[in-house]
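**User:** You know discrete backbone vocabularies at least as well as I do. Would you mind producing a protein record, from residues through to fold? Write it directly below this note and I will take it from there.

**Assistant:**
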Amino acid sequence: MSGDNSSVRFWRKQKLGSRDFTLRENRETGEVDAEGEGVSGGDGSIRQGASTEYRTYKRRWFGLAQLTLMNIIVSWDWMTFAPVASHAAEYYDVRESTINWISTAFFLAFVFVFPISITILHRGPKLAFMTAAVLILIGNWIRYAGSTKASGGNIACAMAGEIVIGFAQPFILAAPTRYSDMWFTNRGRVAATALTSLANPFGAAFGQLITPMMVKKSSDVSSMVLYISIISTVCALPAFFLPAKPPTPVGPSAETPKLSLRESVGVLTSSLEIWLILIPFAVYVGFFNSVSSLLNQMLTPYGFSDDEAGIGGAVLIVVGLVASAISSPIIDRTKSFLLTIKILVPLVGISYLIFVWMPETKDIAGPYVVLAILGASSFSLVPVALEFLIELSHPLSPEITSTLAWAGGQLFGAIFIIVSDALVADKKANPPKNMKNALIFQAIVALVVVPLPLCLGLFGRHHKTALRRVRSDEQNRSNTTITTNL
């Protein structure tokens, strides 16, 4: 069935093989050439040959929906206990700091298995989906095994289950760029990456908003864990029935030979531009994870209720999702990745600075407004940064930079929670156990990394910020036709 008939010019002499070709930029024409062994005649350039027709497939939306669901549920699993930390601590007969360690263990589990997730994603997204589904199922029911009684639970089971779910996260949180690269053209990749990546914080919003409604006293924790386990099971099972890959490549970049994992490490370590994006991305993801986990403890010492703190977390995420839904299609069309990053990064840093003084106003409007701005800027930044990393690193396989970026975010999230927990004021402070010092810490670090992405393209390095994958797809738009099939 013919649909989106955008034309892209791309010639090829024969099917590209990952061992036969390497890519280089033709500085005279601005095109991307493929050179290598096994090519007879010509100059080794993909510019010679017959025109090619590529197809996109409507079935890609099923995989996109499943990836979205799994990112929602794994994040909701993470946010099971944090919004009701005091009730959870009473139920499991531990201190609130132990409940914070459940979130910390979740983040560290990501860091522990992310090299494995890169290897599995390199083989294709479906295997990663199935791996994540199995781990989500096992982890949820281990948690419930230690939470069957209303009178009290086993913290060891809750922690073990959370760690297993944490093992699942990298297989789906890092999958959006790999999936969009395989199934979508460059006119839809940012939006597809945004939908699936931002589903993860949307799940956290569910946890922030719904969990306090489910738990009004400590004995409610048992039923809450059961309900979330059932929902997680329903959301995970469809992963086993998805198609592994499209029948044919959807565009030239989808079949461009990718570098091996070993070669990719060399590229990553030598690219300054990639690190100028990776570092602030990881820091801001880490602070988002920290704020989401500790928002209740940041606000309640100043007289705000659990419900008000939960709504604040939902405001952070829902406003961010709306902003990203508006900005992502625009950026998909304009390809203004670098300009967008240079606008949003300072806005994120300033938002963390202003939030330092919001809890002590004791007026809920202040925190809500700043959280809304922080959410809008942070969520709009996530898909743009992930896609720009792929553009800078092409022809590296997309899962490499995205997994590394998310792993850094999870590692920093764990570190920031530990540091913030250590900076909590004592019971004699005014108000007792406030987190003012932690808020100051996160504002300082957030501002320190702002200059890094602002340096992109400066000092004679503008050519280093070229959109390599877009250029590969859009050279001379007349000789390749992209159509939409079932």
In short: The two ends are 7 Å apart (CA to CA). Residues 1-50 have pLDDT under 50 and may be disordered. The longest helix spans residues 306-334.
